[in-house]
Fold Acyl-CoA dehydrogenase.
Amino acid sequence: MRFVIFPLGRAQAAPSDQLDHELARILQVPSATRSRIGRGQYLTASEHNPIGQLEEALKDILAAEPVHKRLSDAMGKKLSFTRLDILAQKRSGCWSSDPGRSPNSEPCRREPPAFYQRG
């Protein structure tokens, strides 16, 4: 079947992995190119707009990167970014074991977020 559809072979090769990585970097980092690509899109975060939710998540991740770097530097090793709040709890022990600490201090909270509570 392929010979019937492409008698002379494939006309174009797939893009290289390097090009794929470059495109992914452009789409993940706020830049003028990313803004031009997304111009005219509805990016407001709402319950029924998953693209807006992803845009909001990107902003949250970018805001959390300095906290992750400080925790990694303080512990002297590269830490996983996916459970940053749990790492903060282990590092400072501030959620419920340290009542004297301000709940607004970074990265402290009185209780962990509801989606991390297991019950």
Notes: The CA atoms of residues 85 and 115 lie 12 Å apart.
